[in-house]
Amino acid sequence: MKFICDDMLGTLAxxxxxLGYDTRYGAKNDDELLKISKQENRVLLTRDKNLYERTKNKxxxxxxxxxxxxxxxxxxxxxxxxxISKDKSLxxxxxxxxxxxxxxxxxxxxxxxPYPFQHHERFWKCPKCNxxxxxGSHWTTMYDRIQRILKELN
Length: 154
What we know:
By secondary structure, the protein is of the alpha/beta class. It has six helices and seven strands; from the N terminus they run βαβαβαβαβαββα.
């Protein structure tokens, strides 16, 4: 399942990418959002009631009232039925939305600070923006949030 988020849902777009879902963000206007949603078969996620009402197929869009990221994620997971997979998480760049490439430690030596380089073995790199990812302490915090959401859904 693929998504497109309106400008009011940037953090949600980032988190869907963290979870491994192809999520577009940053369309110029509502007409472009609707066009991309239809052309690329993406579920439109919006906080704009008027935009939601303009969608012809309500099953391919979701109106999100809450400003709380936690509530937004719970709603999207519940309504779409998408699953959270530890293997799929951290598979897309949170900036570019491009699938990440696995990199050997020797390939990224110059791209990461010394501490993560010394303490981690697995790294991923975005082929577009060259951002490097690893499962550091931030990953544990994100994974804990994901676990809380999963408990709430069950």
